[in-house]
Design brief:
By secondary structure, this protein is an all-alpha fold. The protein is built from one helix and no strands.
């Protein structure tokens, strides 16, 4: 479960960075 959460957080962070830039 933790692995999935970490992956989701990473994807969210990358998506947010992409939108910010």
């Amino acid at each position: 479960m933790n692995h999935i959460l970490e992956m989701l957080i990473k994807l969210l962070k990358v998506g947010m960075e992409g939108l910010g830039h």
